[in-house]
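hi! just following up on the protien thing from before. the input was this:
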Amino acid sequence: NVALQASPVAGLCMLAVLMAVMPWLIWKSHQFALFNSSYRGIRFGFDGSVKGAYFHYLALPLLCVLTLGLLYPFVHQRIKRFQHTQARYGSVPFSFDATVGAFYRRYLLLLGVGVALPAAVMAVLAGMVPQSNPLTRGLIVLFIVLVVYPYLLSAMAVFVALLQNLVWNHTQLGGHRFHSAMRARRIAFLFLTNMLAIVFTLGLYIPFATVRLLKYRLACMSLAVNGSLDDIAAGQRAEIGAVGDGAADLGGFDLGL
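and the predicted 3d structure came back as:
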């Protein structure tokens, strides 16, 4: 922001620096988060290369921009595949088999039901405003607040549920398969009540809303064990620094669910 205030050229230079560094920071964050997670004394790990990080977190997003977002579901699928297939528990790697087509179907559903329909309603309402009286304008605003905005939150909730279920129902750890049973109705309720609580507490409820939502998302997860987890051996251990973890948190990157 400071660089942009100085000059557009300085702002572009700073943006280029951030774009050049961020894939490396995200890569380090993956390593840090998994290395510092363990189950039954066996640590997780991330084997993805820095070259792969730059391809998935820089090259593919730039390609998405050049195609005006048409490749976004493809990029999302490739990033999730990179995150999951390069992760391991001990010496056993995770696998991921969700298809690009499945991602496109969910994004098209969001675009059609969650974006196009509310946009059409908003366009009709906007056309009514210039010819309407103050009472009608007030009713239009009330309709937007009580109907359109909750509808948008509900559509986003359905999308989040479909996406998490897609990602984790196609993730395996060796012969063990993950299962996600997130319900769109429940997460829509969480979205709406969290939003109301945040508004009425002037933002003080945000940390509680974050934890509340994450607890539900995790509660929907389970692992169908095929055999026993006792046969999994510890993988190679190497000390991982905390560089990148704070940067990824600050940027709000979804490195987990």
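The beta strands are 38-39, 42-46, 87-89, 92-96, 171-173, 176-180, 221-224.
The radius of gyration is 22 Å.
cheers
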